[in-house]
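> forwarded from #structure-qc
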């Protein structure tokens, strides 16, 4: 197992430190041009969806892979975009997950670095507290603690499940350490690489942006605005918030396709699963669901705070309808 394959580990960090290269070396020296190129490729891969695999077959290749990771973190921090931070962390985690399937990878050693300590050589046992910490963002029922065999504080996980848990640990570790505090002069010296990446990022955000057309987004209640803002930033919404947002948007005549597009910046986005859920709420099963009332929204912690109109209505749709009428009246007065 090579430290360059898992550059987020303590071993890799120690190796980088022992080499003694400075950030100035990585940015300025001609001999590190390949490192700068690979670092930009890592960030570009995060923007496009996946970091290309580069199998290093020489010491120089291993060094390039090892040093490109800290420099990529600098580049990501220079770009100062919350969506990119999340996409980058997820992309590094996906690359690590792919590499975990190599024959020479010591999963137990890697798990220990990431804070998990599986026991046994056959069926792996994981302490329940470690499991909860690693699996708390997993939404499938299979990951729920109530659906696992728990005995003596330990539960069983398959090797593949352990790899998936480690992927999530990698994502959280990478994201937790970003953004770095980077001097503006450093970012300026990297502009040759950052400018194309910034353009790619803006193009991605333009493709992801949903055109609401005749729908008056300015008439949305505070709760819906907050959920839309979080979704646009790539923040995972709680199940109750997702249901409220989807059912509200479908009720005001957004299409299922437009609603699905809103969630494709989420770290755990699964297009097929999301489309199934959205179409179910839209009425594919025979019932078109309405969004919950304001009181229910507050009960589940989905109310970010009331404004003056909120205090006069009991439902997000009532809020929207009143705001629409108000906007229409104002438009007629201006005419």
């Amino acid at each position: 197992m090579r430290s360059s394959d898992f550059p987020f580990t303590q071993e890799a960090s120690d190796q980088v430190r022992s080499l003694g290269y400075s950030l100035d070396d990585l940015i300025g020296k001609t001999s590190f041009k390949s490192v700068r190129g690979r670092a930009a490729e890592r960030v570009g891969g995060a923007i496009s969806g996946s970091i290309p695999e580069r199998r290093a077959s020489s010491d120089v290749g291993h060094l390039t892979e090892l040093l490109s990771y800290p420099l990529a973190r600098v580049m990501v921090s220079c770009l100062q975009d919350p969506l990119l931070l999340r996409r980058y962390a997820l992309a590094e985690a996906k690359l690590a997950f792919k590499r975990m399937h190599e024959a020479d990878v010591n999963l137990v050693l890697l798990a220990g670095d990431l804070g998990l300590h599986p026991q046994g050589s056959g069926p792996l046992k994981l302490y329940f507290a470690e499991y909860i910490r690693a699996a708390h963002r997993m939404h499938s029922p299979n990951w729920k603690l109530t659906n696992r065999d728990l005995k003596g504080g330990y539960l069983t996980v398959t090797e593949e499940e352990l790899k998936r848990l480690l992927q999530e640990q990698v994502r959280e570790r990478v994201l937790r350490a970003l953004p770095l505090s980077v001097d503006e002069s450093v970012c300026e010296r990297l502009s040759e690489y950052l400018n194309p990446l910034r353009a790619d990022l803006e193009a991605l955000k333009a493709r992801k942006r949903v055109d609401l057309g005749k729908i008056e987004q300015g008439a949305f209640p505070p709760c819906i605005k907050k959920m839309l803002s979080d979704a646009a930033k790539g923040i995972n919404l709680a199940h109750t918030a997702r249901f409220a947002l989807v059912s509200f948007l479908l009720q005001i005549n957004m299409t299922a396709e437009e609603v699905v597009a809103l969630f494709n910046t989420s770290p755990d986005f699964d297009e097929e699963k999301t489309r199934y859920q959205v179409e179910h709420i839209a009425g594919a099963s025979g019932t078109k669901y309405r969004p919950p009332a304001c009181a229910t929204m507050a009960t589940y912690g989905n109310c970010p705070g009331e404004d003056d109109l909120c205090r006069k209505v009991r439902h997000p749709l009532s809020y929207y309808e009143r705001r629409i009428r108000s906007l229409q009246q104002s438009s007629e007065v201006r005419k």
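QC bot note: The chain has a mean pLDDT of 89. The two ends are 71 Å apart (CA to CA).
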